[in-house]
Design brief:
The complex is a heterodimer of chains A (543) and B (131).
Chain A lengths: L3 E5 L7 E4 L5 E4 L6 E2 L10 E6 L2 E6 L6 E3 L2 E3 L1 E4 L4 E4 L2 E7 L7 E4 L1 H13 L6 H13 L3 H15 L4 E6 L8 E7 L11 H10 L2 E4 L13 H4 L5 E7 L4 E8 L9 H67 L2 H29 L7 E4 H18 L2 E7 L4 E4 L1 H19 L4 E9 L3 E8 L28 H11 L3 E6 L5 E8 L19 E4 L11
Chain B lengths: L4 E5 L3 H13 L3 E5 L2 H11 L3 E5 L7 H10 L8 E5 L1 H7 L4 H8 L6 E4 L4 H12 L1
Parallel strand pairs in B: 1-2, 1-3, 3-4, 4-5
Helix pairs in contact in B: 2-3
The chains are: A alpha+beta (543), B alpha/beta (131).
């Protein structure tokens, strides 16, 4: 249905415009008419203008003086843009609705682009500071909800609004949701906002200003605007790159203050700024979600793979024991038992590391005898080292005590020593553990004569489930050790060159203050030494 | 299978020992390796009648080791059984002999045994491959 209006030109004054409502207009001398004529030539109910099948019609309601369309007397006729209509001595022109028609103003998406350009290039414009501040907010406030709140504050400063709302659409669909709201209305008197208006703005991607919402034929009379006597309202879509992400709505509450068209232009431009911010936040959120799912997938796959390998040992060992018993083969029983023990050791390590890794541990630090702790670890790993002809050497300093959660540090050292023995298993070798302390820090150093850590693997060392040991590794050991050491305020470092063995060093603080990062300049062989941390390394893509 | 020699390559000690125990019980002479590089070297050196090869290993993985064993004139005729953990190999895109044939342009492995390895399934597979 096209939008038409009757334009009455009054000599010496501005023309008056009467919008044709969907239910039509009555023209006549009586006050009940939509267009009230004061001329004596007009009958009480003179004519009716209405739409029928998208065509605008006029009919003479048996008036005394009749009506004329384009200078011709008619009883009933179709009206087109540019036609003239003479009723009771008043000459109306039939026109398409324009922005200044009584009722509402519409800015379509194309217009919005032009306005945006015009406003940005209008350096003398009084509104530029507002836009500048909006753009500044975008660059300085990174929390979207805070940004939206500050944008509303800005709008309240710049425009005579009583209430303001920013609504966003969930990318997954559903009704627009109020994300930020501000009101000058008295508490308890707040009225709901116009959903018809918002739905229209979102559906049509156009900004709308209604000067007198109650008279606006666009909106259902049963709707909230009328019910709550909202006089003037403006609403602009939040436009993302290719879709509407929400709406910015303001109204004058119950005050009959109309908004000039310029206000809608300003609101539309601010809405564009907000639209980009909201869309960016949504994209970021989606990205985080995707990464989280990918990480869970990777963790589950890694864990599944590891458990499957352990299961082979357990199942195989059990099967062999059954056979050995049937055959009364003691030798086979012993071999099967070794397979079972190995598998139990591994599943125990896996579960302990999983627990350490997954729960935030609050460490109770007590004075701990580090030399005994290391001896205990070596005792546990000794049988395995013996099997693979790996020598374990311990060089403790005298009476090394350090405030620590002994159980956790035991686990951290066990992981390092187990790794070191595994690294030497292929060719035999030596694993040396050194332990010492000064007044600032305690140092536990685990060295091996294995193949060393390839340079390309170093950055991924503390990544959970990123094993470099094939089926034999869980990929959790070093990640756990790094976590435990960090939670103690300490630091885990590696020194390694491919083919030259490796050393992993735990530094724990003697006092409460965490250990300071190393002074790089004081360490000439820096390229062979680095800190292992659970914090991701900054990559070129991160800013 | 008395007098036959098998090369078992897996970085997981428990699996290595298990496969060794099962096959020794059937009269095989077992030689053990712990990574792909060892698999390639030892296959050439000890000339086994069969290679049992894990896929996910450090230094060199089982796929690359398989490709090299098949490409060398000294080892190309030795039958190979791959130990697979389905999920992981599926993500690498070669989870059956046809995919591996296409990928490496060599005849695919003679057999596949899924982890967790079952002794009777392993023996059946070995019997099938050795005729």
């Amino acid at each position: 249905m096209a939008d038409f209006e009757l334009v009455l030109t009054v000599k010496g004054g501005p023309s008056r415009r009467y919008k044709v409502k969907p239910e039509g207009l009555h023209v006549g001398r009586h006050v009940d008419n939509d267009v009230v004529l004061t001329s004596q030539l007009a009958s009480r109910r003179h004519a009716r203008v209405w739409f029928e099948r998208d065509v605008l019609w006029v009919r003479d309601l048996d008036s005394s003086n009749g009506i004329e369309v384009n200078g011709r007397v008619v009883k009933e006729a179709a009206l087109h843009e540019g036609d003239t209509l003479l009723v009771g001595g008043h000459l109306f022109r039939v026109a398409r609705s324009t922005e200044s028609s009584l009722g509402r103003t519409v800015i379509g998406p194309e217009d919005a682009d032009e306005i945006h350009e015009a406003m940005v290039s209008d350096t003398r414009g009084a509104r530029l500071p507002v836009l500048y501040r909006a753009a500044r907010l975008l660059g300085t406030v990174f929390d979207v909800d805070e940004l939206l709140r500050q944008i509303l504050e800005l709008i309240f400063e710049a425009l005579p609004v009583r209430r303001g709302f920013i609504l966003t659409l969930d990318p997954a669909g559903g009704e627009p949701r109020i994300r930020a709201a501000m009101s000058k209305e008295k508490e308890g008197e707040d009225t709901p906002l116009s959903h018809t208006l918002i739905e229209h703005v979102i559906g049509h991607r156009e900004a709308i200003l209604t000067i007198n919402a109650q008279d606006d034929s666009r909106f259902d009379r049963a709707e909230s605007i009328v019910g709550h006597r909202i006089h003037a309202a403006m609403c602009a879509p939040l436009l993302g790159r290719d879709k509407v992400v929400g709406a910015l709505y303001v109204d004058s509450g119950e005050q009959a203050t109309p908004f000039p068209k310029g206000d809608l232009e300003l609101l539309t431009t601010i809405a564009r700024v907000v639209g980009v911010a909201v869309e960016n936040a949504q994209l970021y959120q989606e990205n985080v979600q995707r990464e989280r799912l990918a990480a869970i997938g990777e963790a589950t796959a890694g864990l599944g793979h590891c458990v499957k390998n352990i299961l082979t040992g357990i199942r195989g060992g059990a099967e062999l024991i059954t056979r050995a018993i049937e055959k009364e083969d003691i030798g086979l029983i012993q071999r099967s038992w070794t397979i079972l023990s190995l598998s139990f050791e591994r599943i125990d390590l896996l579960v302990q590391n999983l627990l350490t890794f997954s729960r935030p541990t609050i460490h109770e630090r007590h004075s701990t005898d580090m030399s005994s702790l290391v001896r205990e670890v070596l005792g546990v790993v000794q049988p395995r080292a013996d099997r693979h002809k790996v020598a374990l050497v311990f060089e403790p300093a005298e009476d090394v005590r350090c405030p620590a959660d002994g159980r956790q540090i035991y686990r951290a050292v066990l992981n390092l020593v187990t790794n070191a023995v595994e690294a030497c298993e292929r060719s035999g070798g030596v694993v040396t553990v050194l332990c010492g302390a000064d007044e600032r820090q305690c140092e536990i150093r685990v060295e091996d004569t294995g193949p060393g850590v390839p340079a390309e693997v170093l950055p991924r060392l503390a990544e959970a489930f990123a094993s470099t040991k094939g089926s034999a590794g869980t990929g959790l050991g070093l990640a756990c050790t790094a976590k435990i050491v960090e939670e103690h305020g300490g630091r885990l470092e590696v020194e390694s060159e491919e083919g030259q063995g490796a050393a992993f060093i735990i530094y724990l603080p003697m006092g409460d203050a965490p250990i300071e990062p190393p002074d790089d300049a004081a360490r000439p062989n820096e390229q062979l030494r680095r800190t292992i941390t659970t914090q991701p390394e900054p990559s070129l893509g991160d800013h | 299978m008395a007098g036959k020699r098998v090369l078992i390559v897996d970085d997981d000690e428990a699996i290595r020992l298990f496969v060794e125990a099962v096959l020794e019980g059937e009269g095989w002479e077992c030689v053990l390796g712990v990574n792909g590089e060892e698999a390639v070297d030892m296959a050439e050196m000890v000339q086994p009648d069969l290679v049992i090869l894990d896929i996910n290993m450090p230094v060199m993985d089982g796929f690359e080791a398989f490709r090299r064993i098949r490409s060398s004139p000294f080892t190309e005729k030795i039958p190979v059984i791959m130990l697979t953990a389905v999920n992981q190999e599926a993500t690498n895109g070669h989870h059956d002999e046809h995919t591996m044939e296409r990928q490496f342009a060599v005849p695919g492995p003679e057999g596949f045994v899924d982890k967790p390895v079952d002794a009777s399934f392993l023996l059946n597979c070995v019997l099938g491959v050795m005729g």
